[in-house]
Amino acid sequence: MKRRLFDDRHDAFRATVRTFLEREVVPHYERWEEDGVVSRDVWRAAGKQGLLGIAVPEEYGGGGTPDFRFGVVLAEEFARAGAAGFAAGLHNDIIGPYLTTLATEEQKRRWLPGFCDGETVTAIAMTEPGAGSDLQGIRTAAVDEGDHWLLNGSKTFISNGILADLVIVVARTTPEGGAKGLSLLVVERGAEGFERGRNLAKIGQKAQDTAELFFTDVRVPKENLLGEVHGAFGHLMANLPQERLQIAVAAAAAAEHLLEITTRYVKEREAFGRPLARFQHIRFELAEMATECAVTRSFVDRCVEEHADGRLDAAHASMAKWWATELQKRVADRCLQLHGGYGYMAEYPVARAFTDGRVQTIYGGTTEIMKEIIGRSLLA
């Protein structure tokens, strides 16, 4: 069915993104996977092409287009290209809103131009060794020292952790922490006491640098407080629906792409003297996946429409996130199976999609946390 989300502007933008991926990303991606990090050059190229800071006002160097559907196009095309390691979506749709909605005028002028031209790579540091989805368990703490905050603690599993020039750190700013005692502090590259640990070895998304971060008596200037003091919990809750929807969008697109390449494969691959597509079991598998993808696409697109109108709530964002990512995981497994032994070979796109996509049900809030959010909303 024809999708109703997009107009000619989005179609033109999609063509631009595809050309960018073909020229600047796909030819280099294997090397980035080996290096465990993408090149800074591709961030600058993305900025030059207008793919970063799409929603940032033009006066700060951005695209001036708060229409989330452009982010949807970007997420879909990156998913179809198998380029999950280049975290432009994290930069634009997850971290960007914190800077555009919470930053002061001075902070915007200081940080947003680099954010948009690719010179400033960003990260957000929430997860800790002892606290994953549970923000109440955050132990990283900052003490008010008058003209600065003194920050101590550690974070882990931080995407863009190696490359990041600007890290939004969630820290406890009251002894008890919790919902009323967390703040967002921006730590900049080069700050004394700020160190990066190892680039973590992962089973998938190997081109995406994921690091441990350590803060030892880091003096964070008072002017680097982002948003309200002790207000981080509310800021995080306000931005998490878009983060989860962005993950759902990428998951739905990845599942559809896996179905496309597997459909082509079974038409060409033969067994017992005939194409795999001639076997009823194969046709039934494809029929089931196609139906699941179509139903998921309808719901995710509807959530995008609701979000564009400012009506998407946490429960429906959580529904989209857990359902679409679990579908992606399921489709990746079934498509790999239909590829047989070739599906297990790293050179085949389905193999990389299988490992790259596995984290989708984990980051941004696990499937179990999503169900908890939905359940609480029903029983409130």
Strand content: 15-25%
Query: Which range best describes the helical content: under 10%, 10-25%, 25-40%, 40-55%, 55-70% or over 70%?
Result: 40-55%
The chain-level mean pLDDT equals 96
User: How many helical stretches?
Assistant: 11
Strand segment count: 10
How would you sum up this structure, described in words?
The chain has 380 residues and is an alpha+beta fold. Helix content is 49%, strand content 15%. Strands 1-4-5-8 form a four-stranded mixed β-sheet, covered by helices on one side. It is globular, with a radius of gyration of 21 Å. It starts with 7 loop residues before the first helix and ends with a helix.
Short synopsis of the structure:
The chain has helices at residues 8-25, 29-35, 40-48, 69-80, 88-102, 105-117, 232-268, 280-308, 314-338, 349-356, 367-379, and strands at 122-125, 141-144, 148-159, 166-172, 182-188, 194-199, 210-221, 225-226, 270-271, 274-275.
Keywords:
four-stranded mixed β-sheet; 11 helices; four-stranded antiparallel β-sheet; 15% strand; 380 residues; alpha+beta
Furnish the topology, listing elements before pairings.
Blueprint: H1 8-25, H2 29-35, H3 40-48, H4 69-80, H5 88-102, H6 105-117, E1 122-125, E2 141-144, E3 148-159, E4 166-172, E5 182-188, E6 194-199, E7 210-221, E8 225-226, H7 232-268, E9 270-271, E10 274-275, H8 280-308, H9 314-338, H10 349-356, H11 367-379
Parallel strand pairs: 1-4
Antiparallel strand pairs: 2-3, 3-7, 4-5, 5-8, 6-7, 9-10
Helix pairs in contact: 1-4, 4-7, 5-6, 5-7, 7-8, 7-9, 8-9, 9-10, 9-11
